[in-house]
Amino acid sequence: MKQFVPGDLDAAVIQEGLCIGCGACIHLCPYFQSYRGKTARLFPCTLKEGRCFAYCPKVEVDLDGISRFLFGKRYDSAPLGTYRSIHVSRAGEKVKKSSFQAGGTVSALMYFALREKLIRGAILTGRKELLPTPQLVEKPAAVFRHGLSKYTAAPTLAALNEAIEKGCDNLGIVVTPCQATAVAQMRMNPMGNPSFEDPTALVIGLFCTWALDFRRFEAFLAQEVPLKEIVRIDIPPPPASVLEVYLQDEKLVFPLDKIRPLVPDTCGYCPDMTAEFADLSVGVLEGRGDMNTIIIRTERGERIAREAERQGYIILEEMPQENREHLEWAAANKKRRGLLRSREAGKLNGEEGKTYMRLSAEVIDEILINGKEDAPCHT
Amino acid sequence: MSYLIDEGKNVQHLLMGNEAIVRGALEAGINVAAGYPGTPSSEIIESFSQVAKERNLYVEWSTNEKVAVEVAAAASFAGLRSMCVMKQNGVNVASDFLLHLASSGTRGGMLLVSCDDPGALSSVNEGESRLFAQLLEIPLLEPGDFQEAKDIIKWAYELSEEIRNIVMIRSVTRMSHASGNVTYGPLPSDTAARAKFNYHGPLLDPENGPVISMILAAPELQHGPQQEKMKKAAAIFETCPFNTYTGPEAPELLIITSSACSLYSREAVKILGLGKRVGILKLATTWPLPPVFLKKHLAATERILIVEEVAPTLEDHVKVLAAESVQEIGPKLFYGKKSGHLPSVGELNPDLVLAVLSRLCAVPYEAAAGVFATEAKALMEKLAPPRGMIFCPGCPHRASYWSIHNALQLDGRGGFVCGDIGCYVMGILPAGFSTVKTLHAMGSGSGIASGFGKLRQFGMDQPIVSVCGDSTFFHAAMPALANAIHHRSPFTMVILDNRGTAMTGFQPHPGSPINVLGETVPALDIEKICRAMGAKVEASDPFDLEKTREKLGHLLEYAEGAKVLILKQACALSPEKRGRKKYEVTVDETLCRGEDCGCNRLCTRIFGCPGLAWDGEKKVSHIDDIICAGCGVCVDICPAGAILKKEVA
Asked: What is the predicted ipTM?
């Protein structure tokens, strides 16, 4: 179990430019705080071990350990991680089409879980102008105020820690893959606290190839448009390769090539596209902006998804093989690129207390063989 | 009635050196005194203010030292006797005008009193002022004891009027702040001086013409006469009653010394019983040197030890004179700083002089003091835990630096603070969370910040903050702010307004509603000034940590031009606050999680207010009620909410 002093966390993650600002280390102590999308350590701490380090998804991540904890099996090279089933999905008739993006599956699931009291609250991310603002949502209808994609890294887990600190349990949370890793590490009770109970009941992961650095994105958009007038932001699924910014009655379109420089360096090290450590993982279906892909990974995830389907909150359909293969290809590539980048930087099975990930050499080899830059021939 | 204006004839009082200077000036019939506070000089202006009414004086704490000299010069031009007072660093500030003044000359007697701080006990450096006398070409006098500190003042006024130029008096901490018996002379009975500035005479008429320092491409017209004044001063110094010699006619070693060092030398000679072998030439007139007087004493010995503090100033002057007179007086052996017998850094003391004398005269001496000092130190270390310099309990600077530090950390772009002189110098230490990264003269933090701000052009993207006190704002920071605004230099000036010149003892400044004489005066509004100058201005109570951090955070992001954040909260030791607690602060021991808390003792380890202490037995924090000033700031830093406050009724 990883336990190092927080001084190491600052040196190993923040100073190395690996911090994505997920918020896992925030609200645990007065030292780490999130400000405008970035995590800062205010003062050095001398404690010998800390949850901050144990939860951080960017240092000493034992992929195999997490996999064994969540799924009872070793971490292998499967591009989409461990899962039970994969489907095409969208919000069902119980959910009226409102402010969600793509198929609305995530909002529908959280809405359902809150209404049915399967979770006591949901940690969701809204935004204030462009700044992502995570918070605890307890009223089902409020879910839809948080339904829009942010595309910027957010300190979502700070709100989770804050809710746990207040004594909340049975929480639902919507997270990116890095955040899903942090949540999984949290659930493993790494500090061996005897009174620990898993505070989560539903972790929904979002597919993610990268997130934008909030400050850079804000500075970029501020040159183009008054930030207050932005209604929503969208990156339509491939093959489109643009970022759309919707104003009240205008739409600005930026090619993704102009946006990519705003991606923080740390995303290049990440091997996880499909939030492999979530209960359910959801993304946009390639080529269909109004539909989602959903990957059902855990037993509790499956129970909630099936019940939501039965009650008409979501609709699950079979996933066309072609779509699945293409998703696997994309995920395998991200995995391969992430590992290569990490290895180059000495962050794969690297120095103790400084390395990003730990993984057996055998699985690394499999992943590096699986990932191919070429698209599958039939697409 | 103050003992400073005791009229009793030949009455003795125990006076601080600074008070002796004041009494001397009163006996000389001083009319105007102006200064800027600074240790060890501050008691002089304060003492004058106490007797201003009875003695019909005009006394002021000026905006800065240069203005103080200008104010005092006006009195001199109008025929009055005046004095300007400052610490050694102040002479640097005043030096621009002083060079002009030395050239234009004075009318009524005028003295510049500089109180130097060898060892920098209360200063940022131990730069000394004696060299200014040489640079400015004005006479320099150094009293050697407390009686002399009084007596020399009247003599100095007469000299100033005789040569029609300013005369510099130099004291040091051990002369200004130590006390000795002083026998009073009479005070002038008439205090009704009349001021008039005569300017109708010809341009260079020293009595009735305009007073100008502009030489109009003819330096011989003004610089020449100024040098003549120095020759005249040297001639007068030949018979100065304050230059004294004690010792045998032909000493085997001659000590040449001045100021407090003459006391150390006397003590050392006495302890070693060298009175018949070693002579002490105590000079009060250290620039220009009286050559005839000095040569007589140099001729009588082969070996000379020069005892003075910091720079070898006297040593250099004496050596030049000896070199010039070598045919007359023969070659000499010199001991002092250049020979390595005495240090060029820090204060001297009797021990150091004893050591060098014992060596030069081959008289064995075992310093008992050394053993005592070692034992005393060991005992102190046992009784008092080691700790660094810290801010007082309830000090607004701690809260201000907390917010500045956190705002810069959260900003995350490697921002830093440029500081200057005041209690807030401790921003370089853990007391101020090591936030300050440059530290120089008063107002320089903002000038440096203005410069850093313009380095964007070269890719520097670190946010720049300067800190400056309220008195410093008026003293020297306004030109820096004007510069930054005019040149659109993007930095944030944080004005730590604690309502007075706090570090030196709450002297008023132009922002104060009451002056040194206790009169109600217009208080300049710093916020309005900054706004009128064109800065983006915010104000906050530094005790409101969240709001202060937030406001500073916004200003750091706001990239355009100079911004000002005024943090207003009176110093914890200010007369308005002292002894009064706003809040009764307590720690709820059931809420304090002690060592189990993830806070890692934030309150006692980092925040570091001496009012907060760690209870080693109970393993929780507690408030030391006697020390706590009741500001209540620590309530907002405890993540467990264990520190509670209740407003004191």
From this structure: 0.89
